[in-house]
Amino acid sequence: QSQTVSGTITEAETGMPLPGVTVMEKGTSNGTSTDFDGNFSLNVGDDATLILSMIGYVTQEIPVTSGEVNAEMATDTEALEEVVVTALGIKREKKAITYSAQNVEVDELSEARSLNVSNSLSGKVAGLNFSTTSNGVGSSSRITLRGNRSLTGNNQPLYVVDGVPISNGSGNRNSDIDTGGTTQPDGISNINPDDIANISVLKGPSAAALYGTRASNGVIVITTKSGNGAQGTSITVSSNFMASSAYNLLNLQNEYGQGTNGEYVPNSSSSWGGRLDGSQVEAWQLVRNPDYEGPATYAYAPQPDNVIDFFQTGYNLANTLSITTGANKTQAYFSYTNTTAEGIVEGNKLDRHNANLRLNSQLTDRLSVDVKTNYIVQDIDNLLRTGEESIGTSAYLLPRSIAHSQYEDFEYLDAEGQLQTNYFRDEVGAPGGNPYWSALRNDDRTDRRNRFIGMASLKYQFTDHLSLQVRTGIDDMSNKTFRNRYATNAFNNDLGAYNEYYETVRELNSDALLSYDNTFGDFSLNMNLGANMLKQSNTSLNSGGVLSLRNFFALANVETISSTSTKREKQINSVYGFAQLGYQSKLFLDVTARNDWSSTLPEANRSFFYPSIGISGIVSEMVELPEFFTYAKVRASYAEVGNDTDPYQLSPQLSYIGGNGGMLYAQTTAANPNLKPEISNSVEFGADVRFLSNRLGVDFTYFKTNTKNQIFSINTPESSGYSNAIVNGGEVQNSGIELSLTATPVETENFSWDILANYASYDSEIVSIFEGREELVLGQGRLVRSKVVVGGQYGDLYVQGFQRNDEGEVIVNEAGIPLATNSFDVYGGNFNPDWTGGLKNDFRYKDFSLSFLIDMRIGGDVISYTQARQAGLGVNEMTLAGRENGFVVDGVVDNGDGTFSQNTTNITAEQYWTAIGQRTPVAEPFIFDATNIRLRELVLGYAMPKRLLENSPFKSVNFSLVGRNLFFILNEAEYFDPEQGAGTGNLQGIESFNIPSTRDYGVSVKFGF
Amino acid sequence: CTDDFDEINTNDNTLTTDQLDASLAGPAFASAQYAGIHNGSYSSPGVDDQGTWGIATGIISSTFVQYMNTGFSTERNAFGGYESRGWLRFYTVAVPALQNAMEAAEGDDEAQAILKIWKVFMYNQMTDHYGPIPYSEAGSGAESVAYDPQSAIYDDFFVLLDEADAVLSSTSESTAGLFQTSDRIYNGDIENWRIFGNSLRLRLALRISDVDPQRAQTQAELAVANGVMESNDESAFFAVSDITPNNLNMIVNSWGYFMTASMESILKGYDDPRMEVWFEPTEDGEFRGQPAGGLNDQFGTTEFSAFNDDVLGNDYRETKPIEILMAAECYLNRAEGALNGWNMNGDAESFYENGIRLSMNQWDVTDSAAIDSYIAGNSTPVVPVITELYPDLDLYDTPVDLPVSWSANEAEQRTQIAVQKYLALFPESWETWADLRRTDEQVIYPLLYTDNPDTGVGTSLMKRVIYVTNEISSNGEAVNEAINLLGGPDTGGTRLWWDVE
């Protein structure tokens, strides 16, 4: 006997038809799934029971009592059935995942808003390490997952939006060393937080084997909102306003003023002058401006706020309109966000427009289309420089007696009518100039970005089990930078300079994916076969020079235009396959395989293959566990990921420069025609255990990653004609643990309390570098040398220290001044934290909610160039000792015969610190512990109850008060925020004139119609 | 579909080595010239310029010989890492450029001859800084590069100069065509290069005059017989451009380097007309030199005389060329040769006077009466005026106590020649440094302080530059062998092969 049952399955919450629900006859392999309108029809036996299941919904069993079965599917609120968006945008039940993946709450992204989405990830993901540059509004950030694995290459994760990788910028990173620099803001900063529906962080190569070369550092998968399933129209209008104020962590002395040798000198950049006794001294303005009309003298008095007063209150205002609409088989999501922001430095502004349109439509029963266009226009004024030539240099090195009111009027017209800076010197750069001139005139810069991110996807469902998806993604970004440098007496700048920089960064991803999905009795099988073509193409043109007519900023006015251009292209073709076999929804086996062909490698090594395998088992469903276990899952995986390199490293090149008969240079890095791909191997084990009906959960992961055959350049004897050679070599091993804890201590109808805690620590060991090489210098500035040594850790920093004898005593010269080591050979610390963690608490009481996030970074070192230079100029507090009567350095004098005698020579603080804190400082006194714990986010929200809205046009109204970085609970570095670095490259642990970080607070309102 | 991968991986903005042909010989030579002079390029466009400041060698020798005070630690006989910058630039830019020029000019005898002369010039500077250096294997691309003994390098210098002279003195060409537009020194003029080669030979002959007097005489006499520079028209200058500026001018103009007390003592004592050309008075109207080797801030806010804008060109637009080898030096070299008893085709005194005269003319001092009275001058160097403000400074015993007027005593004549050469070579310092080391003439004050405790250094004139850390880490065995060849520790206190006491 048999009967036919048919019916419609709808979603309980919305009443909308639910397509794709699996309808099975219990105890058989007989089944079907609902069509687009939620309808199904199935022949079943007598007394049959239907099992309705779908990812994200509670599975139900319904006995068949008539020919029509209509059911509502309730959303599964239990985290167990959490869905993770994995590679290629494919959604997977979290329980079937064989590697570590963590979802990020996205609500706070738009509330406790940051200009750069990636700033909102810190503390929320175990093992995610975060730092930012101090470029003001428009800053880039640096994220690493599980540490640094590449010696000299990129260590940041890949960002994937809606299944397609996006560019994170040109890779034109800030120079990392103390001299700093600027760069175009990173690519992720353009993504509009209001559009984000989901963020999954896939850590480590296992998670990412399918994205190929760039995914060895993990993947951050972002899914944006779409109108999926919507019928009817809903409109949301929201506004978010945040104010930013500078942390005042400055370490300044307020007892001695501008000058040298204990006396006031109006043109001195130092604060080694006399005691600030309020006496009248000659106005420093007269040094460069004989026509200065202000008072000829002023009070030589402490100016404790002269630096902090330079920084203003910044803001960030974002207004968003979003519309979701749908009718029948077509849905659309549209959003527009305008963001305006001003930083804490005058003139540093951002204006951004994000327009986003997403359309999906079921064209026929079998063919569906999904299209997205995202257009971003962004203007940034005066993106700040980091490092030695930043405005930080001008502000932090201000002589201690110059009042803010004195330098606030930062320019004047001289007798010839020419614009001049109001300062005692007119060169900018160390040791600084007028801070306002630095900010507004020295490098008056505008960055304009236009960016299009588009995606079009067609999916054809051949049968219920077999489908083909074809997709193309485009990320096309153009940056233009205009830089006006006003005339000063500095070298090459007596009439000013002008520069234009154009850059295009384009990434094209095309892929096809054939998927087969079926169940056979107890087994479920999902198989996919795909192909991808990635084309990257970057170009740049840099043009400009010194001006002919003073301060007229146009290319036509550049006396001799100097132009350079670059073009870099790269293509990777890939085929890949992956399959998952499930047994009774409790045991899963994952395998993947991928082969890449990269244009950057020589023909013989161009093709490389890498596989991965993983298993996961739901222990709680396989064996009987004590009752307090709700759920237990274990997983293990092994993965390899191959990696290629940058273009043009295979053959020697010659640079030709025209003019004056031409000049021809050879490259100083030796090419390598035999490069092989890099390979990362990783293993990880994990467990996900829930207790007490999900009130408590622990997710634990151990990982180990070995990256071998790394492509990097080593120093070669320069006498060979090359300073470097590109080689394959080097192995870095990272291993560590990640722990996430979730808890719900209280859950009642009116009140709930949720906790999320993250902890991660890892070790990185340099296993090998290159045959015969025990060490490799990764970068060097005036302050530190970053060097890896076999057996050592990634991130070791070496500095110039004090010369010491065998007893470790400091050697001083005959004048009583300590001698510096000749090179950067003194170990100064390591920039990696010992561990990082986050603690997030969410409280809800009726219609109110409160959440706060504490972000912790424990251990690691950071070396401060600012403190060193401030000491050299007598600006900071440590220079107060010995001002009046001097001191004797605790050290010894070399007698020249192998013996040493105790130093007895008295020197002044000025003699001591000018020797220690010079431009290439003795860095030992300026090493700080980077440990810090901060209140990262605070959100207090109120959702207006529905009953109050019944007679209003609103469907929902939400208010929140928000704060970011409100205060440090602990900051060992004391005088600066150790999270800020000079750049986003691999050389971290350097603080160099970073502008203060900010505490941000504001309000957010959201209206739904 | 990987057919076009090779094309994708080709850089459109660079040339490849298989495109190296005769048309690139001149541009490659121009690069070898600019990177091969020690005050050349601080950053050449298109070249990775990280750390490759040609000024490094300039900072080193300029401060060692007290041509200028820098505020850098090199001023107190430290190396401060500057020892490696010049090395980097020389071996990774100048040497490959010269090799490319030689390869591109293959088959062109005249061009090859000129390149050989330039090879001698640029390597001479390097070996006289460090001692044994990579020479025969330099630029080989090998993982390990041997260092050659300095004596062997000098042997090859003379061979190269012989070969070059043979070609250039017998050719019917007047211009090396490949170099006509790119040679920034002589535009490929064959006679100029021939004379340059022999002037260089004379310089080298004097350098080895203590260690190998016999060969020194032969080479010096050969040089003069072949013809050395006799007028300023023949002097060698590098023509700067906006992308190849004079590096010293950049540091002088942007960082304000000062006249030294040693310079002041001599120039002021002799009432030298060049003083006002080279330096400018302080705001209080004084020509005040700064003692070398002072501590940071030792002189507080005391003003010292800065360089005049036009000594080195006042900014990048200046066309002030860089001095390479001057006719004045040739006369002073001949004067010393004559004292040695060599046939220099004239007498020492007239060479000495001619050297002074040409140096004055070179700096646009053309009043012959003034020059005559300078040459006849009997005044002697003075105590620097800084002692008025800092009377405790030990500057009262001036290093030079002879007048300009030609002494009757041969030892004094040698000192007078050394002093005039010290002035004639200004502002390019590396030859000055080599010459002061060889002659051991005391022309400058000892340093006030030293940061270098090595034996033989202290506050006196540095003897050499130490080997660079990158070579030690990547080519360690060869460096150890070089230290053996050096015959002393790798410090600034070990004398070079030709520097015989």
Could you walk me through the main structural features you see in this protein, from its secondary elements to its overall organization?
The complex is a heterodimer of chains A (1009) and B (501). With 1009 residues, chain A is mainly beta. Helices cover 5% and strands 49% of the residues of chain A. Chain B has 501 residues and is mainly alpha-helical. Chain B has a single domain (19-254, 308-486), classed as Alpha Horseshoe (Serine Threonine Protein Phosphatase 5, Tetratricopeptide repeat), CATH 1.25.40. Chain B is built from 20 helices and five strands. Chain B has helices spanning 5-8, 25-36, 55-64, 82-104, 109-130, 150-170, 190-207, 213-226, 247-255, 261-269, 274-278, 309-312, 327-339, 348-362, 368-375, 386-389, 410-424, 430-439, 469-474, 476-486; strands at 15-16, 236-238, 279-280, 306-307, 322-325. The model of chain B is unreliable at 44-54 (pLDDT under 50). The chains are: A mainly beta (1009), B mainly alpha (501).
In brief:
The complex is a heterodimer of chains A (1009) and B (501). Chain A has 1009 residues and is mainly beta.
Helices and strands in order:
The complex is a heterodimer of chains A (1009) and B (501).
Chain A: E1 2-11, E2 22-25, E3 31-33, E4 39-45, E5 49-53, E6 60-63, E7 71-73, E8 83-85, E9 91-93, E10 101-104, H1 107-111, E11 128-133, E12 141-145, E13 158-161, E14 164-165, E15 196-202, H2 204-208, E16 219-224, E17 232-246, E18 280-282, E19 297-299, E20 314-327, E21 330-342, E22 349-362, E23 367-381, H3 391-396, H4 404-407, E24 411-413, E25 419-421, H5 435-442, E26 444-461, E27 466-485, E28 497-520, E29 523-546, E30 562-583, E31 587-598, E32 607-618, H6 619-622, E33 629-643, E34 653-657, E35 663-666, E36 669-670, E37 678-691, E38 696-708, E39 710-715, E40 724-729, E41 731-747, E42 751-768, E43 775-780, E44 784-789, E45 796-799, E46 811-812, E47 826-830, E48 835-845, E49 848-858, E50 861-864, H7 865-872, E51 887-888, E52 892-894, E53 900-902, E54 906-907, H8 909-916, E55 927-929, E56 932-943, H9 946-949, E57 956-971, E58 980-981, E59 990-991, E60 998-1008
Parallel strand pairs in A: 1-7, 11-58, 13-16, 36-40, 46-52, 50-59
Antiparallel strand pairs in A: 1-4, 2-3, 2-5, 5-6, 8-9, 10-15, 11-12, 13-14, 15-16, 17-20, 17-60, 18-19, 20-21, 21-22, 22-23, 23-26, 24-25, 26-27, 27-28, 28-29, 29-30, 30-31, 31-32, 32-33, 33-37, 34-35, 37-38, 38-41, 39-40, 41-42, 42-48, 43-44, 44-45, 45-47, 48-49, 49-56, 50-55, 51-54, 52-53, 56-57, ...
Chain B: H1 5-8, E1 15-16, H2 25-36, H3 55-64, H4 82-104, H5 109-130, H6 150-170, H7 190-207, H8 213-226, E2 236-238, H9 247-255, H10 261-269, H11 274-278, E3 279-280, E4 306-307, H12 309-312, E5 322-325, H13 327-339, H14 348-362, H15 368-375, H16 386-389, H17 410-424, H18 430-439, H19 469-474, H20 476-486
Antiparallel strand pairs in B: 2-5, 3-4
Helix pairs in contact in B: 2-4, 2-5, 3-4, 4-5, 5-6, 5-7, 6-7, 7-8, 7-13, 13-14, 13-17, 14-15, 14-17
